[in-house]
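pasting for the record
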Amino acid sequence: MPVALSYSIRKVLTYFDLFDYPLLKEEIVSFLDQPVHLDKLEEVLEQMLDEQSVFRYDDYYSIHKDNGRVMQRIAGNHRAQPLLRTGGRISRFLYQVPYVRAIGISGSLSKNFAREDADIDYFIITRANRLWFARTLMHIFKKFSFLLGRQHWYCLNYYIDEEALEIEEKNIYTAIELITLFPVCGNGILHEFYRKNGWANSFYPNYRLKIDDGDFSKTDSKLKRMLESLFSGRLGDWLDDYFMRVTSRRWKRKEARQKKSVKGARMGLHTGKHFSKPNPLFFQKEILDLYSEHLKRLSTK
């Protein structure tokens, strides 16, 4: 049965409220679970404002009558701009690590928002069967960022290779992270990545990806090509397997000790031959469970 548009609107605002993030009406359209014209959305939003089931401050909508959240969002949008430029420069530099095929910026920054203690999170695609080789080289470089106190600029926490382009977890959280990914540089593999993950359209039929090869195409340096040639055989295969085993064991020990990050988040890594990503049993599950609880209350109302 078709879902009432007002309920769909509340679902969108409820999800982003988990992050204290009011939305513009154009953003509401993008994240609705049903097709809608802007005119119809505006009509229903006006009805909801009259009923006080949603609230507006300037051009921003929220389920709370709290102007402070809007001001916080605007400040976060301004803070995001210089960090996006920094992340872009770092991405283009890291792209020259052997076997890297594409880099994008993810997390809150990909949604043009940054808190005062914001990190720069990266989404990285590598050549098939060389993910752990590339990841190890990138994390060795990251160690030097601690000397300058810039480690929060190098959150290299999500890797997949060309054999695992389709995201395994298919839910509202991963769909939003996927469609809001901010591509920086690559060799064209991102087009195949989005094709493989067309399932996200079923969550957000109104969202339109804005991909232009000219915005992020990048050529490989001579040094990168030389190193890839050098480690293309059995030595590279052995090193990739070795780095995977060592890293996986280390992260299992961290999870067993229930180690937390400096921000208090539970640390965990989900690993396999073709992927390395945050354990979905932690932050992702926490967000989905919280969202589910809010939806139950919304349905009751």
